[in-house]
CrcB-like protein-domain-containing protein
Amino acid sequence: MPPPDGRAPHHDDSGSTQLSSPTSNSSDSQILGPQSNLDEIIAPPPIYESSEKPERQRESLENRRSKDESLPLPQETEPAQVNTQDGRYPDIPQPAKKRAFREFLRMACIVGYLIFFSIAGTILRLAIECLTFYPGTPVNASVLWANVGGSFIMGFLSEDQELFRVDDSHTAEAATKHKKTIPLYIGLTTGFCGSLTSFSTFIRDLFLALSNDLAVPLGPYSDVSLFASVPVGASAPNGGFSFMAIVAVLFVEIGLSIASLYLGAHLAIGTSAWIPTVSQRWVRKFLDPFVFILAVLSWVAVICLAALLSRGSGRVTLWSTDMWKGPVIFALIFAPLGTLVRFIVSLQLNSRIAAFPLGTFVVNLGGTMVLGMAYSLQHASSSGASFVGCQVLQGIMDGFCGCLTTVSTWVLELSGLRRRHAYFYGTVSVVVALCALVIEIGSLKWTTGLDSPSCFRNI
């Protein structure tokens, strides 16, 4: 039976049925501009259900990119202004300098949101990792619940049609196009969700599962900390158990992240009647400049805290400031850098290959390789790293690498790609990143061995 809106179903190469839309995506390119290269922006919502309304039905990410690439880059024009003296429209449009200045202000707002939400996402990720690292925890993968939470928020924001709606006359499709032009939306998806989740930490946990080095929190709760050297427990009898550990981490991390993405989208659909609408006028006039100033001041304040950082003494426990103060502050310093690099790389590379989001792949692989380098330097027995140097390396791993890599965007792309392309993209991303850590960290572990970091040694 044909769908109720009269669109004819067609089948992609994976055998799944999709609905072809008679409308063009030209307006998407006209509205989004260069930000359309962000997969957080252009990727379709994760929910596809034939029983839903037509606006809930979507096409694949490849189709959207192909249509965008076939369209010429539109030139923005200013609306004609009425001359208040004689009521006539001027013959000369607004100068290009004014358009460039407005685009500069918009980009400044986006950068401000990215800085602010990268700091907020990093703080929340580290807090979740610390809270879920306790004796008797059912899952030892430290970043699991941060990835689940970030993917859940990404699914909600991708499917939501009410939070950024302009007025009631706009359709769901128009509301979706409009929200993707808002700096606040870009900050929440690219900045907050991307920083709350970490692909590099996920691959690190995957390697530690392979090498039987996943930390097992033992002993009293007051003596257990994420920022401390923790016994890894007994070694597995043979490599077959390491294989089972890898499979377990893969299924738990990827499966729960994708499930939370869909759960967030379902929540957005189910609560659409009760979700309030944010006033866009208030956001542009008050929230945008306020967040920009707050982001700059927050980043400067964190840098000043690192400069004034002092090393204390005493018994180190889970909530001791000497345990988490240095690594957390350095992580907050490097977090905005990782988010901004990911944002720029995604703008430049994500549109190169429609079936393979190259930008996300590059930042995930690059961030994982940087994490492997920092991890090896921190755990090398002959490195001679100072106490502060050890904390800086931890800040690079948690801050720069954690924000440079993302799971929320990755699972959103997996849900938007065609099935064959999604499996290929996901498999290549995990296998190549894991091989990089095997070369970087494995060569050190299986030769000279890994030593306890100097800044985590006293526990």
